[in-house]
Amino acid sequence: MSAEIRQLEPKALWNKFADLNAVPRPSKKEERVIKFMKDFGASLGLETIEDEVGNVIIKKPATSGMEDRKPIVMQSHLDMVHQKNNDTVFDFDNQGIEMHVVGDWVKAKGTTLGADNGLGVATIMAILESKDIAHPALEALFTIDEETGMTGAMGLKGGLLKGKILLNLDTEEDDEIGVGCAGGVDVTATRTYEQEETPEFKIGFKVTVKGLRGGHSGMQIHEGLGNANKIMNRVLFDGFENYGLRIAEIDGGSLRNAIPRESNAFVAIDSIHEEAFLSDMEAIAQEIKKEYKTMEPDMVIEVSKIETPSHIMDLGVQEGLTRAIYAALNGVHRMSADIKDLVETSNNVARVIVKDGAIKIGCLTRSSVESSKWDLANMLRATFELTGCEVEFSGDYPGWTPNMDSDILKVMVPLYKELNGGEEPHVAACHAGLECGILGTNYPEMDMISFGPNIKGAHSPDERAQISSAQKYWKFVLEILKNIPKK
Question: How far apart are CA 66 and CA 141, in angstroms?
């Protein structure tokens, strides 16, 4: 399948992407891709460094005639989000991504593609390998663990990089030049509960929410996509009052930065209410599907009879749990008052696990304004603490404050217009968590910018990269490198 990808133009870019996608690279398990990148640098005879946390830096001198330009850093992250369709059999730890071409798009077969941020990595690899692409002195920075905590960027020490301009290749709209991004914090609520033996008069059912589109919990949080955890909670909410419904287990969502696509609940109801329960569940399912028919046309809500669970959760805790999840904000909290159409603050109720006497609810709260981020995080904390949960904040990372006086921005805007028939680029901050804000803490004088090709459906099995956009982006990269300002 990679043979088809390798014939795409620009071949230098797509061949490196195919090489990279043959290497398993889940977040927090980047050992193989770190080795792959170090071997790549060594094969080119370039200075290659692995820092204390696993980031890889490869240094390449300026090409002839470019020695008087400011040295640059080109940066992308090595890890990728691992999501697959429920019916896809795939081992992310041991298999390379299976890709194919669909019209103007490259997709994976039932899994995430890894274009986020693999196309950025492949771009830098192609430039490092090239013998005829003009560029200033170049430091290639490949960070780890961007998707699950940004620990690579956080662990990068000051003084390792000498570059004056950083080109981050992790933006997913080819007409956008990124100048700022949101920060984030993980909000995790936990508590234990007493399990009770299920009474004999109860019968068991499995409730499933699936078929949702999912997606990036920053870039797509404003789109009105369904959140499987919130939908499941809505389905179960009045269950005790109406049918004596008691929860045995819930397993919903997966990754903190992915909008939840699936949730499964195992419940017990009073057998006397079986007919009413099934009828009402069908009505509720149709009602919710009608609401989401435009954004989630493939949503499935189904109820199937199972062996009665042996244990159920304490009723008081159950009632507190369902009310807390209902009250927990999911989606946009505030839009920016300063930047048109920018989501300022949001939350993703990413993970809900109820099993074996323990509850865990994971959220990712984002904002481009630090005070607003902590305001929403504390709102969630209060919501969950009212139900007896302990709440922990972790993985806090800063946003990236826009610099509209940036020298590299002044180069890129006219270049974009020249290459695209006078079309103006969209200069904007984004609601995703780019690494620029973190890197800027140890490199505060570095001029940073972000851009990239069109990538749709990131963090979901619908992820796809546009072939024609990659060609447009590649030309832009080459022109930027030739026009880096002088020292």
Answer: 20
- Whether 228 contacts 166, CB under 8 Å: no
Please report, for the chain, how many H helices and E strands are present, in that order.
Answer: 13, 23
Q: Which of 79, 174, 270, 296 is catalytic?
A: 79
Terminal CA-CA length for the chain? 45
Please answer whether residues 29 and 93 qualify as being in contact, where contact means their C-beta atoms are separated by less than 8 angstroms.
yes
- What pTM does this model have? 0.78
C-alpha distances in angstroms, 85 versus 58, 114, 229, 297? 36, 15, 17, 16
Q: b vs e for 462-481, b when ≥16 Cβ sit within 10 Å of the residue's Cβ?
A: bbbbbbebbbbbbebbbbbb
**Token pair belonging to 184:** 């984030």
Please give the structure tokens belonging to residue 357: 């006497």
Contact 223, 295 (CB under 8 A): yes
Question: ω into residue 257 within 30 of 0, thus cis?
Answer: no
d(CA 259, CA 78) in angstroms, rounded, equals: 22
Residue 356, number of CB atoms within 10 A of its CB: 10
462 is catalytic: no
Contact present, 127 and 38 (Cβ < 8 Å): no
Does residue 342 sit in helix, strand or coil? coil
> Does the annotation mark 146 as catalytic?
yes
Choosing from 30, 139, 145, 146, the catalytic residue is 146
**484, two tokens:** 């880096």
pLDDT of the chain, 487 residues: tens digit per residue: 578 999 999 999 999 999 999 999 999 999 999 999 999 999 999 999 999 999 999 999 999 999 999 999 999 999 999 989 888 999 999 999 999 999 999 999 999 999 999 999 999 999 999 999 999 999 999 999 999 889 999 999 999 999 999 999 999 999 999 999 999 999 999 999 999 999 999 999 999 999 999 999 998 999 999 999 999 999 999 999 999 999 999 999 988 889 999 999 999 999 999 999 999 999 999 999 999 999 999 999 999 999 999 999 999 999 999 999 999 999 999 999 888 889 999 999 999 999 999 999 999 999 999 999 999 999 999 999 999 999 999 989 998 988 889 999 999 999 999 999 999 999 988 898 889 999 999 999 999 999 999 999 998 899 999 999 999 999 999 999 999 999 9
